[in-house]
Predict the structure of Oxidoreductase.
Amino acid sequence: MRIRIVDAFTDRPFSGNPAGVLLLTGAHAFPDDTWLQNVALEVNHAETAFAHPLPEGAGADWALRWFTPATEVAMCGHATLATAHVLHTTGADEGQVRFATRSGVLVATPAADGSVTLDFPTAPLTRVDPPGGLAEALGTAPLTVLDTGPNVGDLLVEVADEKTVHGLAPDLKALAAHSERGVIATARAEDPVRGYDFVSRCFFPNVGIDEDPVTGSAHTALAPFWSERLCRAGLTGLQASPRSGRVRTELRGDRTLLTGRAVTVIEGDLLA
């Protein structure tokens, strides 16, 4: 079967967040979980997406699951974008696509400019007291700490400024004790003229990802946080990882729209 590596939330190769994508076009169910996990481990990117078509009347067009090299996850933005990109560029599906996932039905809508907009559930944010040891693990004092709810499973941590976000070098082993998946560190952009409103970095040691390059699911929490602060529904976030990428967000109550582009960089045959 064909396997592809797609860089998501970018319009150029070797940036954004790479995801493996396997379209199981002849299947009506997913293969054994052990096989799915082994493929994700072999691909060894933050997530590998597996999708198979659904029959008419199923309430969605494709079933979709995501695996890190270590575990299955409940929600993943960049691998969903990558899957939608593969569906559209290969002609396997055209127009709007509905994915049945562990997080409900997620919709991907392509635009004429090549971008794709994802419709995801907005993360419910709950302010919490900073856990003991968080500042030491992260390497900086948090200004605000919020729980992002079960779908995202992170702590959202506001830090002093953009420079602090760029300079973080956390103790990942210590950081793993503070949330289900990891920590989203964020700050307001120093100069919005650069084309983004806030910056973030995401550390997910509990699912085998030290630092995720660009995280769509994290932006379902970043969007409501910064939309309230900046008094705008539509924003652009820069994820300041070494690969870097931008996510356009639009808050619509209990749903968040995430828009970005993607590019296929590798295509080949999976023989196992």
Summary: Residues 2-120+259-269 form a domain with the Diaminopimelate Epimerase; Chain A, domain 1 fold (CATH 3.10.310.10).
